[in-house]
Design goal:
The structure holds 2 protein chains of 2 kinds. Chain A is an alpha/beta fold. Helix content of chain A is 22%, strand content 39%. Chain A has a 10-stranded mixed β-sheet with strand order 4-3-7-9-11-13-15-17-19-21. A 9-stranded mixed β-sheet of chain A has the order 5-6-8-10-12-14-16-18-20. A two-stranded antiparallel ribbon of chain A has the order 1-2. In chain A, strand 3 (97-102) and strand 4 form a beta hairpin. Chain B is an alpha/beta fold. Chain B has a single domain (2-249), classed as Rossmann fold, CATH 3.40.50.300. Classes of the chains: A alpha/beta, B alpha/beta. The interface between A and B is medium-sized, with 23 and 31 residues. The structure holds adenosine-5'-diphosphate and magnesium ion (MG). Residues 11-12, 16, 34, 36-42, 52 of chain B line the site of adenosine-5'-diphosphate. Adenosine-5'-diphosphate is lined by residues 11-12, 16, 34, 36-42, 52 of chain B. Chain A: It comes from Carboxylicivirga mesophila.
């Protein structure tokens, strides 16, 4: 059922919500999922929805966004709420295995038979029952010791999401696209919990695509745990494309074993308030991680990327690059926490955050946070804030290109570096044209899914 | 084609152009010479529409239009081209994208259909051959990591693509080896026609051996202090500027 909840005081109502609906929350969920709830709930209630008094959330006070009269689905029927569970992908050049979720709940997998042998894709609550050994080994094991309140909230409340398992040595050539569609007649709070396990020598690319197709206010708390085992290769592209009334807290927790190579890329093309928590734990030697992000915001949009690279073991390399373009009164924040533990000799960690502010009112707070406890390491970080280059602009004009076209070329040139890091060729092409459209102001986030072209309900753009 | 009358321009309250008068007719080649800091690049920038400089007096008409009234991009579309003394590097903007945008903006201005991708690439191939520019350069970002000579060749390539009515070459020859100099000169000469005019800003006679000027002007302290035929360039090469400075101070 859909429960409508009026949240005024946060903890008070969230506590009540959890306690009153506990049996529904637990109903049909895997044992391990339920086993972790109580402790997570305690952590969440103790810490609460973070305000900007919490150091890690200094630039994003989430409290106001988690208030209001919100619908919450405690069952699949309620989440789907009559929506068709059949969606269609109409962009042929983007050949993906498509998984559709509605309001955080698994709805439909297209062409399941085309998946390579042994690969499991489906609803986390269902697949956990079919593969208890995998689920119990990994679920909830990579949230780190920072006890993030939003991660705890997700663990306490989430009931469904996607499960992806790639067995040893299997290379999944086509990316798996997890499309989460937010819809409903009322404002809504959505939880989603994904678990992705890539076994030794396996390879997987995942696209997360969240979008809103009705004009209501959506508050999303999603969390994806990834385990990239020995010598695996894993990519995740989180394409964030929601209307301005959306608040999204998106957790990406990646755990790496020896010789694994991972890439995360948060492409925040359009959204109301976005907070990305990206945590990469390099828990073995010779891991390589690439952590990227591109945020394009205007009006009053706000994007906060909080990354935490944990170099726990020697001989690992991390490469971080976040770039943002802020227009109007948009604001953004970046925190790049890098922890090099005493053990982690011969660490290479590179970080940069570059920002382009198009107006006087646009704002960025950029904060590197290096904690280095080993002595034989190479770490570098750099943050820049700039405006469009006048000389470059004049050069373009002198060739007959007007101010507007010139701006688009230069903004695109700025964003380009992050787009080039995409390791899925057709997606790269797709993102290139979306980013260009975004800069041209032709980007219609209401009408269709940025990636699959799915048509949404006709709603006014917010 | 171009009529400059009593042009004054300043930056930060410092007057740099102090009353320039110059008239250029279709088909003519004018050389502007003069010591460093005399205002040659400022004149080019002001003509191209760089807003860093403020024009505080004078007028410029270009094919009957008030040039100073036009936005920089419209001056370009009207057929004015500046080959920059210091071309700007623009990482992330590909040469192809840059030139396609520029060419199609020009076409739009003339109410012509934009070129299709294949038409555009064909044009690009032709012009690349004309100016002997390396294919690799046009596959890169605009001027990024180009050598000095490559940047100058790239300016000439852009000129060939845009086919301006008036080209201003601001020290396009500086720092070029003989080979690159020949390429630049050929590029200019191949575009020469009775309708097209050129202003060559240079310190050296050697470019003027290839691009033969009808008139040579000396710019000094923001004014044209001497104008004559092509023989003036030879004289300057031989004697330097001191005699002109002296003449001017007197
Ligand atoms: N951006 C600028 N800011 C301040 N002064 C400038 C600027 N550009 C040029 N000038 C000054 O204007 C004068 C003329 O410069 P310029 O036009 O570059 O000379 P030329 O090209 O003949 O060597 C010089 O004194 C120079 O210092
Ligand atoms: Mg100069």
């Amino acid at each position: 059922m859909n429960k409508t909840c009026r949240i005024v005081n946060l903890q008070e109502e969230y506590s009540q919500l959890y306690q009153e609906h506990r049996s529904m929350i637990e109903d049909g969920a895997p044992e391990k999922m339920n086993a972790l709830r109580a402790k997570a709930f305690e952590t969440f209630i103790e810490k609460g929805i973070p305000s900007n008094k919490v150091e890690a959330y200094k630039y994003t006070n989430l409290q106001p966004y988690f208030k209001g009269t919100l619908d919450i689905a405690f069952s699949k029927e309620a989440a789907l709420n009559g929506s068709s569970d059949k969606f269609h992908c109409s962009v042929p050049e983007l050949d993906t295995h498509n998984v559709f979720l509605i309001n955080g709940w698994f709805a439909h997998l297209e062409d399941a038979h085309q998946l390579p042998e042994g690969v499991v894709v489906g609803s986390i609550r269902e697949k956990a029952l079919e593969h208890p050994e995998v689920f119990e080994k990994y679920y909830g094991q990579n949230l780190g010791d920072d006890n993030d309140a939003m991660a705890a909230m997700n663990t306490a409340f989430a009931q469904d999401g996607a499960f992806v398992y790639v067995p040893k040595g299997v290379v999944v050539n086509k990316p798996i696209q997890l499309v989460n569609i937010m819809t409903g007649e009322n404002d809504r709070l959505v939880f989603q919990r994904n678990l992705i396990v890539v076994e030794d020598n396996a390879q997987l690319k995942v696209m997360l695509c969240d979008h809103t197709i009705s004009p209501q206010k959506f508050v999303i708390n999603n969390l994806t745990e990834v385990f990239a085992n020995e010598n695996s290769v894993f990519d995740v592209y989180n394409i964030q494309n929601q209307h301005n009334l959306t608040t999204q807290v998106s957790g990406m927790y990646v755990h790496q074993k020896k010789y694994s190579n991972i890439l995360t890329n948060n492409l925040t093309l359009h959204s109301g308030v976005t907070r990305n928590n990206i945590r990469v734990t390099m828990d073995d030697e010779n891991c390589e991680s690439h952590v990227y992000g591109l945020y394009l915001s205007d009006k009053n949009q706000h994007v906060d990327n909080y990354s935490f690279i944990d170099h726990a073991k020697p001989h690992c390399q991390s490469f971080e690059l976040f770039k943002g373009v802020m227009d109007d009164s948009a604001s953004a924040a970046f925190t790049g926490r890098v922890l090099v533990r005493p053990d982690a000799q011969q660490t290479n960690a590179y970080q940069s955050n570059n920002n382009l502010l198009l107006t006087q009112n646009a704002k960025i707070n950029s904060k590197p946070q290096l904690e280095i406890y080993a002595d034989d390491v190479k770490c570098s970080h750099g943050a820049t804030v700039g405006q469009l280059d006048d000389d470059a602009m004049f050069y373009l004009k002198a060739r007959g290109i007007n101010e507007n076209e010139g701006r688009i070329l230069l903004m695109f040139a700025f964003a380009y570096e992050v787009i080039e890091k995409i390791r899925v060729e057709p997606l790269k092409e797709n993102i290139r044209s979306l980013v260009e459209k975004r800069f041209r102001g032709e980007f219609d986030k209401c009408d269709s899914c940025v990636v699959c072209g799915h048509q949404g309900a006709s709603v006014s753009c917010l | 084609m171009l009529v400059i009358k009593d042009l004054h321009a300043k930056i930060d309250d410092k007057e740099i152009l102090r009353g320039i008068n110059l008239e250029i007719k279709p088909g003519e080649v004018h050389a502007i010479m003069g010591p460093n800091g005399s205002g040659k690049s400022t004149l080019s920038s002001v003509l191209a529409g760089n807003e860093k400089f403020e024009v505080n007096e004078g007028s410029v008409s270009f094919n009957g239009k008030d040039l100073l009234d036009l936005a920089p991009e419209d001056r370009a579309r009207e057929g004015l081209f500046l080959s920059f003394q210091y071309p700007v590097e623009i990482p992330g903007v590909s040469m192809v994208n840059f030139m396609r945008t520029a060419v199609n903006e020009h076409r739009k201005y003339r109410e012509e259909e934009p070129y299709s991708a294949s038409e555009f690439l064909k044009l690009m191939r032709e012009k690349k051959k004309l100016v002997e520019i390396d294919s690799n350069l046009t596959n890169r970002s605009v001027n990024e990591g180009f050598s000095g000579g490559e940047k100058k060749k790239n300016e000439i390539f852009q000129m060939a693509m845009l086919e301006p009515k008036l080209a201003i070459l601001d020290e396009t020859d500086s720092g070029l080896d003989i080979d690159a100099l020949r390429v630049v000169a050929n590029g200019v000469n191949k575009l020469k026609s009775p309708e097209r005019s050129t202003i060559v800003i240079t310190h050296y006679q050697r470019l003027l051996d290839h691009i033969v000027p009808d008139y040579v002007h000396v710019l000094y302290k923001g004014r044209i202090v001497k104008s004559a035929g092509k023989e003036l360039a030879l004289e300057l090469e031989e004697k330097g500027y001191d005699w002109i400075k002296k003449e001017f101070e007197d």
